[in-house]
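Hey, can you fold this one?
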Amino acid sequence: MEQQKGITISIIIPVYNVSAYIERCLRSVIKQTYDHFECILVDDASPDDSIAKCERMIADYDGPIQFRIIHHEHNRGLSAARNTGTDAATGDYILYVDSDDIISNDCVEKLMAPVLNDNSIEMVLGKTMRFSDEGLSVQTIRLGGSKKIITSHEEVRNTFFDKKHLIPYSAWNRMISREFINKHHLRFEEGKIWEEILWTFFAMKDLSHIYIIPDFTYFYYQRPDSICGSSGKEVLSSQKCIVYDIISMNFTPDDEGREAAYYVRDFIRNYMRLRKAKDLRATAQRFSKALPFRKYPKEKTLLWAAMLLPHNHWGKEIYKFIVKTLKK
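Sure. Predicted structure:
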């Protein structure tokens, strides 16, 4: 395509133990139809030959994409790698790509198109297609085949909190303004799983101009040996509840009820999985305080049940019965 050189993008790819996938990922970056961008690979002290494969591919590449590799001295985790790439980025916009996923050949072109016409856009999102060992499933942004332009902070929040899954909480498959990221100190919480939930929660506090396109631009691969795929359910639930604890301490004044209602059911699901949940009682109480019963009776009832019932087999069965009753 004919490219305007005024607006640039930084693609950030954390790399750790992905020897089987990194070439596929990097190949999808090299094939981009829009090539006025830099690609920052963050080596999170990967013990395998992932970076060696990157170096060979970059050495063989002869094109306009600017590649950089940044090395961590020791393994610091996905959030830290993304933050390192963010700090090093020079593009006007940032696109996070996981090293075991791929992007469509026209991903950057499609995401950049709205921005070339209006650079006040803070975020552009595409559709995601999800792959797993069990086969192919599709995760789509529910647009009915049409684009969506959101041009006010209130509308962004209405779209996110009132129309679930229209704006997913992932960090990938969205191009976001680097100026916006730096202005609002938007970084990933290090040392946490489910860091993208937090990242999105804080982004939604300030976003006011989003453009959603109806095209598939990202192909997500769910690996059984990924962090979420390999960790035990109780560990994952515990980590997720920690994230919700942080959220509960940062509810937005005058809109805390809607925020609490959005997150509370998933918090309860994970809360009920934990045999030892005393440390999270304060989190549950903050959710309860934020939820007015008159406006959110079902959510409030479920939360009370989760707080009062024992977290054993019988407690969970009673809770399931309450859930079914409230659905009637």
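The radius of gyration is 21 Å. Let me know if you want another pass with a different chain boundary.
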